[in-house]
């Protein structure tokens, strides 16, 4: 894995954004050649307004994406299992996920794969853990009774199939989960740990998130920042010719 | 920074378009970072560009069309043509020619007439002609109806609440959906409060043509902070912020006392938009010199030649309020006064797409009605 440690939340966000941008540009997407960006389901889909608004306001309205290319799991579908299976099919049809971007919960879960989820699970319906319900209460005016208890989510296995995985972890409250995810073994109680077995994982975090890690780990990866920063500088643009873009090689392999 | 989405003359919710219809924009317009605000609504304008709404001329219709077209450049997308105190014959001839209609490329929308007088106080007639003043002592509402001829298309009536039987009249007008405004009056606070309890919701040009504020009897001005307003209702008040009708300090006092009730109006007269000189205001002759408009040979103010956008700018400067507050005083508040805020005066989803593009100094760059551009600032310098 690559562990990218930036000092603050905004620096971590910016690094991640630049990385994703470079990845998209270097991939050279076009009609019929999709750069499939995977994102966790975020809020439970029972409240279509909240999740759609969130995605619209924070992402879709700022970019020129065709609405047909946006696929969101529909929590109101009549047959939820069929909806999940169809979602898996859509991923295959688009050529598989190129880059999956997600965060982790304080209980170490990726998407809504709560502790105890199978590490080879696919897209399915999950009942949410209390931790997650508490964390989501902020979207429902702090009223716990309003927070949905079930969600549709991509499975750990689904994310493992992505060609690259990026996990964003910021804040001291995530520090223990990060420690469990990368310094301890692969364990279905901390589902993010599954990515130790993925060939291409990037963890981007701020200082606070590293509080539970060994000093040795932190020093090692901070030392690598010189090399890692070559992934975000220079910043590529779609306007450059195809030849220039594809020539830039990755500075080293994992 | 945000995008504004418009479809079929209404403001559109882009999320529904994106997720439910899988649609995207057909036409994209770069507003270059301008401020987008709801179109201004002028509820007191007596004329302009040589046209006087209180004069029953043969070409009255083309006159009102001219004004509605010209005020687009001031950012006004809807207005209430105002008639000052006039003899009944004028009302009978003119009112049928004022029809409520939507705005468009031809001009700003007409929301209905504002009848300022003749049921007003002799002592506070201002520029209104004394011989045309009337009372409704004898027949109350019937007197009013026979004076005006009909109330079709009448949106606002200004009257003096201290007049006998005013409560009945106010009640009847309110029940017919006409907004009752208090003005040109010597009413004290309790008379004004009684009028509000019977349905009055507006004050015509606060401070002007009413008793001055007195600490033991604040008069009509006291309505701004009265505790006798029925629950759930708000009293609105018009202010002509042209720098002449009201001292900026008085403007600030009113604004600070009751910011949500302030409605900017122009009270513009026929001479607005024209060179200084002599013009008419109903039965009177008016002299214009710069921004000052007086009854010929006197120092009695009569209307103004200010434009709506000038009033907005002056208001913002004088009170130091936020840009949003200044713009709301010319759009949201008049819409709320007339009870049309679900359609006009805001940029909410599903409301009419009447909006303006303004630069940072609040100069109007372009005016849109129902999503169509109806006026644009000419920057070619030709």
TrEMBL record, chain A:
Chain's role: Catalyzes the reversible conversion of alpha-D-glucosamine 6-phosphate (GlcN-6P) into beta-D-fructose 6-phosphate (Fru-6P) and ammonium ion, a regulatory reaction step in de novo uridine diphosphate-N-acetyl-alpha-D-glucosamine (UDP-GlcNAc) biosynthesis via hexosamine pathway. Deamination is coupled to aldo-keto isomerization mediating the metabolic flux from UDP-GlcNAc toward Fru-6P. At high ammonium level can drive amination and isomerization of Fru-6P toward hexosamines and UDP-GlcNAc synthesis.
Coiled-coil residue spans: none
Oligomer and partners: Homohexamer.
Family: Belongs to the glucosamine/galactosamine-6-phosphate isomerase family.
Top-rank lineage group of the source organism: Eukaryota
GO cellular component: cytoplasm
Pfam entry (one): Glucosamine_iso
All residue ranges annotated as the Glucosamine/galactosamine-6-phosphate isomerase domain in the record: 43-198
Catalytic reaction annotation: alpha-D-glucosamine 6-phosphate + H2O = beta-D-fructose 6-phosphate + NH4(+)
Molecular-function GO term, any one: identical protein binding
Keywords: Carbohydrate metabolism, Cytoplasm, Hydrolase, Isomerase, Phosphoprotein
Lineage per the UniProt record: Eukaryota, Metazoa, Chordata, Craniata, Vertebrata
UniProt cross-references to InterPro entries, sorted A to Z: Glc/Gal-6P_isomerase (IPR006148), Glucosamine6P_isomerase (IPR004547), Glucosamine6P_isomerase_CS (IPR018321), NagB/RpiA_transferase-like (IPR037171)
Name used for this protein in its record: Glucosamine-6-phosphate isomerase
Enzyme class at the top of the EC tree: hydrolase
Enzyme nomenclature, EC number: 3.5.99.6
Compartmental location: Cytoplasm
One of the GO BP terms on file: N-acetylneuraminate catabolic process
TrEMBL record, chain B:
Every Amidohydrolase-related domain range: 35-374
Residues holding substrate: 127, 208-209, 216, 245, 301-303
GO terms for MF: metal ion binding; N-acetylglucosamine-6-phosphate deacetylase activity
Active-site residue numbers: 267
Catalytic reactions of this protein: N-acetyl-D-glucosamine 6-phosphate + H2O = D-glucosamine 6-phosphate + acetate
Record protein name field: N-acetylglucosamine-6-phosphate deacetylase
Obligatory cofactor(s): a divalent metal cation
Pathway entry: Amino-sugar metabolism; N-acetylneuraminate degradation
Pfam families, sorted: Amidohydro_1
A GO BP entry: N-acetylglucosamine catabolic process
Cofactor binding note: Binds 1 divalent metal cation per subunit.
